[in-house]
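Figure 2 data, in text form.
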Amino acid sequence: MAKVSVCMAAYNGSKFIGQQIDSILPQLARDDELIVIDDCSTDNTAELVANYQDPRIKLIRHATNLGYVKTFQEALRLASGDYIFISDQDDVWLPGRVAAMCEELARVDVVATNLSVVGRDGGLRGPYGQTDWHLRASDSRHHFRNIIGIYAGNRPYYGSAMAIRREALDTILPFACYMNEQYDLWIAIYANLARSITHLDIRSVAHRYHVANDTPERPRFPLLLWTRTRLLLVTAQLYARILKNRRRNVNSL
């Protein structure tokens, strides 16, 4: 069986991180791993993680705060698994998440699922008034349409609801040097450019909104996050990386 690595960036997450870890560990096999990088928390987050004493948990502590994008990048580089899951510190994984996503990762580089909301029925509120904003499995192969949807801010690609094949990291990493948020759109653009993504209709994660959460309850208008020029740059960079890796693979044959 393929080995699973779970990558979690943690910062001052003591209130909810235990619930998240408790929802992850039952879905992992004996040889899987949960990498938790504590990004210089000022609370007892690291101590709570260390107290699990589970050999599958690998805890790394930062001496200085690097921010969650660089922390996730470090965790992805440390991952030794074939299939790599991204995890926020304050969500809850729903039963069957790992099994369903691993089945699809046998065929594609990236699997993206949907979110529910802790304490509320239904899904996310969308940026254009949607009451249930979600990815559709039927859109998995509409790659150009998905990229346009990312530009319009109307594709709910969330890193915490994604999983990645290890081979894809050769192209995805390193994240763009100017990126201080929205790394999940970087991954989604790659997967659609590479034509190697599956959307699952399932809600695999219950997302938690609270005052310390970096994710707003209603998505912000996309141009407030990235300009169109920035997204064009991201798309061009990823396409160049894909072509370079394909040429390298052909030359090695």
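Caption note: The longest strand covers residues 197-207.
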